[in-house]
Prior knowledge:
alpha+beta, single chain, 23% strand
Amino acid sequence: MRHLLLMLLLLLSSAARAQDDELITIQSAHSAPVTVQRLQEAIVADGFTIFATIDYAAQAAELGVKIPARTTIAFGWMPGWTHPLILRPTIAIELPFRVLVWQDSEGVWMTRDTARYIVRYIHRHEAHVNEGLLREQDAKIAAMIENLTR
């Protein structure tokens, strides 16, 4: 009975990772390096620009500290962001999109912000963005991630 309860709790905690409507986490079927490579290739193939790739594990290794894979990829679609960036320069602190590839004892995961999260924080800059376009971008990113994690 105790094992059944433990299994149920583990399933619920894993399901909870994917249920937040502002932060989505899904498991990758691939290693962290392969997931990062597939993500970078998919981002470029979908017409986005990669602005930065931050490999926290590599930075920690330079300090002599070993941590599991932690890589953030920052990317965006500049045709849709140029005008808001001109009108409200501080909006740049909320952008670009970011995806974190990370590893724990259960596997490799990808976590991303959603359009709902971005809209909430963009509004504090009194910026007007095309929310329909942002939601289209969000759906495109969601599909891209779903596809590359298989």
